[in-house]
Design a protein that fits this description.
This is Lipoprotein. It is built from 4 helices and 37 strands. By secondary structure, it is mainly beta. Helix 3 crosses helix 4.
C-alpha cells in the first residue's frame, strides 16, 4: 500500500514538473532572450548580439519599421532565429498604436501581412507573401471608411489574374485588368493617364489629362490598334480647342491639321498637312506637305495671311496690312526654293509699312524675294516742301536704310527709324497700292519757297535742272557742295 502511494506521488511530481516546463515555454514564446536593436550588429547579413560569437536567436526591440514597408515614426519588435528575422514582426508608433503585423521565415517575408491607420485604427492593407515575394491576394482599404480600394492577385511576385481599383471612397471602379503571363488586358483610369490594353498593348481610346488652375481637362485623345497609333488623334488646349488633329494608319502618320491660339484664346493659325515623304518624322513639321487653305490672324482677328496649297506646292499667297480695323495694303507671295515635298514662300509686290497712327513710313517693292525699290518717308523738315512725296533710296550710293527688309513671306518688314543719306535719294510720288514707282523727279510747290529755306530751294532747283536733262543722273556729294557755294 505504501509502495502504491509512493508511486502515485512520484507520478504527480513528474506531471507537475512537466506542466511547469510547458508553461515556461509558452510564456517565453519562440525566443529565450529579448534585446534592443542598439545591442546588435550585422555581420555578413546576419544579426549578432554585440560581443556574441553566434548569430542571435530571440527578440529584437526598436527594429526599423521600414523593413515592413512602413515609414511612420515608431519601431518594431521582431523574432530572430540564427541571425535572421523568423516569426512575427509587430510595429507600433511612439504612442503604442499598432501600425503593422507581418511574418518572416529565414529572413524573408513569408505569410500574412496587415497594416493599420494610426488615427482610425482601421486596416489599410492586407497581403500575402511567400519566400520574400508577394503571393496571393493583396488588398488596400480606405482608412476612414474601411472600403476596399484595391485588390491584386500575385503568383510568385508577379501579377496573375484579376486586378481591380476603386476611387478613394471605394465607390467607382477606375481600373479592371486581367493579367496573364505578365501582360494585361482591360482598362486602367488611375492618375492622369487613362489606358486600355489588349494583351499588354495599348488598344482603343487612350486619354491624358492636363491641369489648368484647379481643374483637370482632356489634353490628348489617342486611338490605338494592337499597340500602334491608328485612326484619329487629338491634342486639346485648356479652353477645349483642338490644336492638333492627326490621322494615323497602323502607326504611320497620314495627315495632320494644326490650329494655333493665342494666350487670350484668339485663333491665329490654321493649316492642314499631308505626309507625302516616305520617311516622315511625325515630330518634325517640315517633313509634312501643306495642303488646302492656310490662314493667319492677328490678335484682333484680322486675316493677315492666306495661302492655298496643293500637296506642298504653292497655288497662291496674299498678305494684308492692317491699321486698326482698316486694311491698308496687300502684297503677294510666290514659291521660291524649298524641298521637293514643300515649297518655300517669299514676298512679291509692294509691301507698305505703317506706324501705329496709320502714317505710311516705307514702301518696299519685291520681285520674288529680291528688293527692287525702297521708299521711305521724308524728314519732317522736307515734308511741307514736298507734300505727297517719298524718298527713293539709292542702294548703291549714300548710307543708311531705316527699313529692315525681310523677304520671308510670313514675317513683315520693319521700319526701324534710322537716318539715311538725304543727298543720295530721288524724291518721288507716293505710289498707290500696287502702282509702279514713278521715277521722274518731283518739283517743290511754290508756297514752300520761304525765305528761311532759300538755300535749300536754290540747291534743289539746281538738282531738278540736272534731272530735267537726265532723269537717271546721280547727284554726287561734290555736286551738292558746288550748288551750295553757287547759291550763297
Amino acid at each position: 500500500m505504501n509502495k502504491e502511494i509512493l508511486v502515485f506521488f512520484n507520478a504527480r511530481r513528474c506531471f507537475a514538473l512537466s506542466a511547469i516546463t510547458l508553461a515556461s515555454l509558452s510564456l517565453t514564446g519562440c525566443f529565450s532572450e529579448e534585446i534592443d536593436t542598439r545591442q546588435t550588429q550585422e555581420i555578413q547579413g546576419l544579426v549578432y548580439k554585440v560581443h556574441a560569437d553566434d548569430p542571435f536567436t530571440g527578440r529584437v526591440l526598436n527594429y526599423p519599421m521600414s523593413v515592413l514597408g512602413l515609414f511612420s515614426v515608431g519601431s518594431c519588435a521582431v523574432d530572430f532565429k540564427k541571425g535572421l528575422p523568423d516569426g512575427e514582426m509587430r510595429c507600433s508608433d511612439n504612442a503604442g498604436v499598432l501600425l503593422g503585423v507581418g511574418e518572416f521565415k529565414a529572413g524573408k517575408r513569408d505569410g500574412k501581412e496587415e497594416k493599420f491607420d494610426a488615427k482610425t485604427g482601421k486596416k489599410t492593407a492586407e497581403g500575402n507573401w511567400k519566400k520574400g515575394v508577394q503571393d496571393g491576394l493583396q488588398e488596400q482599404f480606405n482608412p476612414q471608411s474601411g472600403e476596399r480600394i484595391l485588390e491584386v492577385h500575385y503568383t510568385a511576385g508577379k501579377k496573375d489574374g484579376r486586378e481591380r481599383a476603386w476611387d478613394g471612397q471605394g465607390k467607382e471602379l477606375i481600373a479592371d485588368l486581367e493579367w496573364e503571363n505578365g501582360v494585361q488586358s482591360g482598362f486602367d483610369n488611375r492618375g492622369t493617364q487613362h489606358r486600355t490594353y489588349l494583351n499588354g498593348k495599348y488598344h482603343g481610346l487612350q486619354k491624358e489629362f492636363g491641369i489648368d488652375g484647379n481643374r483637370f481637362f482632356v489634353a490628348y485623345e489617342q486611338n490605338y490598334a494592337n499597340g500602334e497609333l491608328h485612326g484619329t488623334q487629338k491634342r486639346i488646349n485648356a479652353k477645349g480647342n483642338v490644336t492638333e488633329l492627326s490621322e494615323f494608319e497602323h502607326g504611320n502618320l497620314r495627315a495632320r491639321t494644326v490650329d494655333e491660339y493665342s494666350y487670350g484664346g484668339q485663333h491665329i493659325h490654321h493649316v492642314s498637312r499631308l505626309a507625302i515623304k516616305a520617311d516622315v518624322n511625325e515630330f518634325i513639321a517640315s517633313d509634312l506637305s501643306n495642303d488646302g487653305l492656310e490662314q493667319y490672324w492677328d490678335n484682333n482677328g484680322h486675316l493677315i495671311r492666306e495661302l492655298v496649297w496643293n500637296k506642298g506646292k504653292l497655288v497662291s499667297a496674299v498678305a494684308s496690312t492692317w491699321v486698326g480695323d482698316q486694311q491698308v495694303g496687300q502684297y503677294q507671295g510666290v514659291a521660291r526654293g524649298g524641298d521637293e515635298h514643300q515649297d518655300d514662300v517669299t514676298k512679291h509686290g509692294q509691301e507698305r509699312i505703317f506706324d501705329r497712327n496709320g502714317e505710311l513710313q516705307a514702301v518696299v517693292v519685291w520681285n520674288t524675294g529680291e528688293v527692287t525699290h525702297t521708299l521711305v518717308a521724308l524728314p519732317a523738315d522736307r515734308r511741307s516742301q514736298y507734300p505727297g512725296k517719298m524718298a527713293l533710296l539709292n542702294p548703291n550710293w549714300g548710307w543708311g536704310n531705316p527699313v529692315q527688309e525681310i523677304p520671308d513671306f510670313d514675317t513683315a518688314s520693319r521700319y526701324d527709324g534710322g537716318g539715311y543719306a538725304i543727298d543720295h535719294i530721288t524724291i518721288v510720288d507716293i505710289p498707290a497700292p500696287g502702282q509702279a514707282i514713278q521715277m521722274q523727279p518731283a518739283k517743290p510747290q511754290a508756297v514752300a519757297a520761304a525765305a528761311s529755306n532759300s538755300l535749300d530751294n536754290c540747291v534743289q532747283q539746281r538738282v531738278d535742272a540736272v534731272h530735267a536733262e537726265n532723269p537717271d543722273a546721280l547727284i554726287r556729294s561734290d555736286m551738292i557742295e558746288e550748288f551750295e557755294q553757287d547759291c550763297q
